[in-house]
Every structure is written in structure tokens, then in C-alpha cells.
Amino acid sequence: MEYRTLGASGTSVSHLALGTMTFGGETDRDGAFEQLDRFVEAGGTLVDTADVYTGGTSEEIIGAWLAARPDEVTDRVVLATKGRFPTSPEPNGLGLSRRHLTRALDASLRRLGVDAVDLYQVHAWDPWTPLEETLQTLDAFVRAGKVHNVGLSNFTGWQLQKAVDLADALGLARPVTLQPQYSLLVREIEWEIVPAAEENGLGLLPWSPLGGGWLSGKYQRDTVPTGASRLGEDPERGMENYAGRNAQQRTWDVVDAVQSVAQARGATMAQVALAWLAAQPAVSSVILGARTTEQLLDNLGSADLELTEEELVRLDEASDPQPADYPYGDKAITQRSRKLTGGR
Asked: Which active-site residues does the annotation give?
């Protein structure tokens, strides 16, 4: 396992993180305990959850595991959670207001059974709450010792930049991470969000690194999935829905390239996809989301896989989202760059 800092902070984390969205739902308590045990045994440290994962059950399971394990095991864990989405049907039961975040954090700490978390992330942008209010609230959490670092999730480039600028201007705790969707199938964040994160020293914590299972090779062209998989149970699920991605030739170009590299290296497709993502600029830790311990162990195998420059280029070319000329294409990039020569 490799270790990196959480962005510009002094906190170090494993370059693979354990995502726990399945805990209490697709993964029962015993399975969750086993995943946590095996993750830490493999050298993993960053455990990521959220207050809305299975209605708070994910945090409760992690809290029970922390209480059941000795200090020499739990002291390794860098614990991250999030707040913003609905935790009650009341009008103030969601958002990034001081009222909601204060209650949400306190409830998360109770479920986790800890006095503080290492990283508290706002789960998404809130158009109704002034950003100053949110940042002041996060800063108060840090000053109170309830939170060690603060982060963002699902922010766009301009939202990220505004948050950092306001924090700096007001002398508040600065975000150190951004948790975006990022994979070989979802690279559009490289146009604005990744440069903004790099410019401001934010480490990326990519979620859905396997594109909802697409990059593991479990889905076939023009065959609607069935059985015990996320799309097998719900082919129309979210952004990774089968019909939408199956219709894109780029999807299958990427899958074919990952499969080819995997076969040549004697690795699984998931390991190749994860190794590619871990090698991208600004990535602090890649969040693994496994239903089973077997899936987790396979994913952890990517820690031993270092792709060659040729393999990285091959995967880059197959997954290039090919932006239009403006504002992200080659012609527009030329407008924003210049050589140190004369005017002609």
C-alpha cells in the first residue's frame, strides 16, 4: 500500500480507501466487519462513509467495529464522513446550513462512537445556504476539535474555487480534499475540476472508480444485465444505467482497452482501472466500493500493479472524452497558452 497526504494537509492516508455505502444494505454487519478487518490488514487506513448511507446504518456498523477492535487496530484508521443530504423530512433536515450541519455532525459522531472525525465533507453544493455560513460552521467544528480536516464532495470547478477563496479571505479552515466521480468512463472533471484542485492543493478522493461495475468486465454489449449486480437488480440505476452507456461506442472502446491490458499483465480488469486512476494527478486516495470481501480483496490487488507509460497512454487514448473545440478542446487550449517567443 502506498501512502499520500490528504491534499495539502499533514494527514497521510492509504492510496486506496474503503467506501462503505453498501454497509447495512448490500453488505450485512458480519460482511462489513470482515471488509474492515481485511482492509486494515492490507495496510489500508482511510475509511469513508456518510450520514445518509443506509439511513445512518453504515456509520453505526463502523462505530460498532471501532468499539470491538483494539486500539492498535483502530488507531490506524483515518475516518471520513459527510453531511448535506436529507436526514429527516423537515424543511431544515438537509442542506449546508449551520443548523443542519451541526445536528448532522453530532449525530454522525454518536453513531460512530468517536469524539472527532479526521475528515468532514460537505456532500454536495447547496444553492440556498450562503457559502460563508457553511465555511464558518466547518471552521467552528475544527476549532471545537470535532473535525480535523474539512473537504468538499461533488463541487464543480467554480464552486471549489469560490470555497477556497472565501475560506482564505475570511481566515477559515481551508478545504483539503474534493470527492468527485472519476474513472476511465468519467473523465470530464479533467477539464476544469482537476486543474482547480491542483491549483489549490486539494487532494482528490474519486468515487465510483469502476464506473458502477462497467470497468470490472461484468457487463456485455447489447445484453441487459440480470442477477446479483447493481445493474442486474436495476438496469436504469443512476448515471451508470445500462441503456445510456451501452449506446456509447466509447464505453466499449474503454472496456476493450482495459481488458487487453489486464490480459497482458495477468491482472483483473478492476485492478487495471484502479491502477490507472491512482496514477492520475492530484489523487490522494481511490475509494473502493465492494459488496463482498472477495471483491474488496480483488480491488486491493491493484496496490501491487504499476502500469507502464505505454499502458497509461493506451488507456488515456481509449477513454478520451474528446471535448468540442471550445472551451476545452485543443483549439481552445491553444488560445490559453503561448511560447516565450516574439509576437509572430
From this structure: 53
